[in-house]
Batch of 2 targets.
Target 1
Amino acid sequence: MRQHAVRTAMTLYRSGTLDLETAAVQAGTTPERLRVAVARQEGTAVSTAPETRDDGERILLGAD
């Protein structure tokens, strides 16, 4: 069921019906994860380099 919610949210975001934040809430994920999922589906390169938070601590990346 969650996969269906993510696909629906991605479709609504890409069509401009929902903004990124609203679509992410509907899908039960973060805006960043939804953005990455949309980019992957569209074949757009997404950076997988570790990022850091404002306090300098690395953000761990993981696979779903």
Target 2
Amino acid sequence: MPRNQLERMVFAFITVLITVHAYVFFSLYVVNGNTLMEVNQTTSVIAALNKQGGVYMFGTYLPIWACVLIEFCFAFTLENVVGSPLSFRLARRIFDPAKDHPMMFETAIICATVGIMCPSMSLIAAFLYYPYYMDFNIFTLLANWLKLVCFNFPFAFFTQLFFIQPTVRVIFKTIFQKKLKNRIAEEVHTKPQNEQEAILDIFRQIDMLQEEIAHEHRRRKVLEEDVKEISSR
């Protein structure tokens, strides 16, 4: 997992780069491929796009690479500003990265990210691909947004969980291989090296648990006092 701003930016860049290309392919070929071929009377999606002059966006036709670039800019900004920080906070509310298995925590982050980014990017796509040759209608926009969420959410969930995020982690580990090795070496060095250190480490953990229990008792006492105060009123 990334631990500083540079690593987070690189991680988000790789994720968004793969995701945007996957979504463009999914939208053009899987969802709208047959419609494009029928309307343009062609036998392939590429031929249909060439015939109509590109992908319909912003009320005009743009090349595929332009659509990919526009969606990438939106997704990368949204991922860094909202998706990544908020998904980490949501996962922290359920799992503790210091205590729970890393796989559980990472899975919780992926699920939270999908839950945030899929509706957000679908709303942006509803504006980008809205049929502006017709009169703008907010209900049509909302209907298109709901349609996109229904199409995109299952695709986003399964691809992020089983394909995109594992691939991103392999690429990320390859890029920061030296840093990760040094980080693992430091963690191994801090582990108990003999029986005496192991016993001391156990006592430190017991002290930490006792502090947490005492903190919970203090919180419970404050809550009980608040309840008594409210009931007395």
